[in-house]
Design a protein that fits this description.
CATH class: Alpha Beta
CATH superfamily: Flavodoxin domain
Largest sheet: 5 strands, parallel
Bound molecules: flavin mononucleotide
Radius of gyration: 17 Å
Number of domains: 1
CATH topology: Rossmann fold
Strand order of the largest sheet: 2-1-3-4-5
Length: about 210
Amino acid sequence: MSAPICRTRKLVALYGSPRRQGNTSRLLNQAATGARAAGAVVEDVFLGDLSLSPCLEDNGCRDTGRCVIADDFQRIYLLLDECDGLLLASPVFFGGVSAQAKILIDRCQCFWAGKYLLKRVRGGFSRKRPGLFLSAAARAPRPDLFEGAVRTVRYFFDALDVALWRTLLYPGLEEAHDVLAHEGYLREAFDAGLRLVAEVDPGRPEQG
Ligand SMILES: Cc1cc2nc3c(=O)[nH]c(=O)nc-3n(C[C@H](O)[C@H](O)[C@H](O)COP(=O)(O)O)c2cc1C
């Protein structure tokens, strides 16, 4: 009897901080490294490097489920549409996600239109795609510190049919290198990336 063919899992890692070597970038890099150790292919996307217009709310996506603005989003759309799982990192900025992350999230209104207006059903798998959200904030822990960011990410993931499988939220990190003093946080992020790969629906066929 031949062994089942397990195809490569394709993940997308969205870096939402303007700091390439900041806390959330370092944490996400660890998670991506963990996912690669589990055999996944991970595409790193630094949102600050992209040329992205904010959503212009002309509702062009309502007819087709595709955004009509011609910029780097068109490539990211395909990555997000076809990936098996998603990793997103953003610092807390004024109680929410960074501007870099929010611009991308708002452009994903086309996924929302496809799902809720055009009633598109994402076929080919029985389980939602797993998603991991990592965040850092400077303030000391308090119950609502990550509330705004996590709420936005929940809406974002829902539009993409991604399940918020796990959140890793780290308070008390301010300078770009602060996370380096917390080996446990970095290890936790690595382990989460490793384990996220096992959350991908094993029956999910190749996309794209
Ligand atoms: C524009 C801006 C807004 C911020 N707003 C908050 C905030 O509301 N709450 C908080 O705890 N930290 C806030 N911070 C601090 C960052 O969340 C913190 O430094 C974080 O570690 C940055 O992550 P990064 O290194 O991945 O960019 C803010 C920082 C900036 C630059």
